[in-house]
Amino acid sequence: MPKIFRTMRKDLDDKPTIGAIRDCLGVRVPIDVDVDANGNVELNGKGMSVSPSLNAFPHFLIPRRLQEFFPKATGSNSLFCFSMGDGPFVPSGVEEGLDLVVDRPSHGLVVPARLDAASLPIFQANLAATRDHWKIDESVEV
Amino acid sequence: MSPRALSMSPDYLASVRGLRELHRLIARGEGEAPQCDALRDSLEAPWYRMTEAEKERVNHLSADLYSISDSPHAVQLLTPEAERGLLAAFAARKVGDWDLALSLLRQWGACLQPAELAALRGEIWRQAGDPETAAAFREHAVTLDPSIENVDESNFRAHVLPGRS
Questions:
Q1: At B107, is the pLDDT very low, low, confident or very high (cuts 50, 70, 90)?
Q2: Chains A and B: how many Cβ contacts under 8 Å?
Q3: Is residue A142 part of a domain?
Q4: Which end of chain A is more exposed for a tag (fewer CB within 10 A), N or C?
Q5: Residue ranges per domain, chain B?
Q6: Which of B11, B40, B51 should we substitute to test contact with A (largest number of A Cβ atoms within 10 Å)?
Q7: Strand partners for A18
Q8: How many distinct structural domains can be found in chain A?
């Protein structure tokens, strides 16, 4: 399973907040994904954004409290950097029904793995099911 | 050949405009305010349409803009290596390699007075074709030192080096 990073809000148990809104574990329609007339997520280069490292995030997604380590950071301090997995950042399966697509070396998308996992509710449920695999990971690699 | 201004896409310009506003709000202690989150939201779409070079430039500018709101840096000893680095920054500016000039200032600028560094950054952004960002650094330089002059290579060699070496 590839190691992927994503900044999200967290719940009291230090796991990511699930939701179809910004900075949560889930996708927003049509910002993150498009849905066809049958309610299926279109496999069109969109998905849930992830990165291979903290430094690969845009400045506005890195919490300002980490500015000492990431001088560009302008993100909200209510964001937390999470990671899951431990493999290389290459196209591969993430979890049940989910694949990682790497569109740039510094950016990837988690997308439905198969057509039968592509309905929006199933995709959201599969994303939500990864919640316990994410851990806060704000360590700075040198 | 005279140095050329940076080519700036609409998404890049929107990103830089939003970035400056974000830093202005953060400096006012409003970094967690709803309008700051709305601004971050507005930066997302243009971000993913920019080239990697543009993204890197914006990320670096974000780091540099903190020099306006943070306490002025403590001036470091001007070592021979730092002197070479700063002279290389002047040389990069002269040929219009704005990214390299700014990068070298990021590395060695702590050997300059904060007002000198801000004035130099402002001058580079002005020449690079971004007068608004230039003004932000220039205004900061004047705030730190109302008598600040432009810092160019001859000025650096004539006035800065003798006083620091």
A1: very high
A2: 46
A3: no
A4: C
A5: 7-70, 72-165
A6: B40
A7: A25
A8: 1
Q: Residue holding tokens 């002047």?
A: B90
Subunit contact A58:B31, Cβ cutoff 8 A: no
Residues of B in contact with A104 (CB under 8 A): 52
CB of B40 within 8 A of CB of A75? yes
Domain B72-165 has CATH 1.25.40: yes
- Tell me if the pTM is above 0.90: no
Determine, for residues A59 and B58 on separate chains, whether the beta-carbon distance falls below 8 Å: yes
CA dihedral B34, B38, B41, B43 (to 10 degrees): -120
Per-residue confidence at B120, pLDDT binned at 50, 70, 90? very high
Q: What is the residue range of A90's domain? A: 4-136
CA dihedral B126, B127, B129, B131 (to 10 degrees): 10
| Spatial separation of the C-alpha atoms in residues B130 and B12, rounded to whole Å | 11
Q: In the structure encoding, which two tokens stand for residue B122, read together?
A: 């402002």
Question: Do A80 and A138 touch, CB atoms closer than 8 A?
Answer: yes
Measured CA to CA, the distance from residue B19 to residue A74 in angstroms comes to 9
Find chain B residues with C-beta within 8 A of A106's C-beta: 52
- As given in the structure block, the two tokens for residue B59 are 């990320």
One-character DSSP codes across B128-147: HT-HHHHHHHHHHHHHH-TT
Pairwise CA distance, residues B149 & B162, whole Å: 17
Instruction: Return the C-alpha torsion angle A30, A35, A36, A38, nearest 10.
Output: -140
Q: With contacts defined as CB-CB under 8 Å, which chain A residues touch B43? A: 58, 60
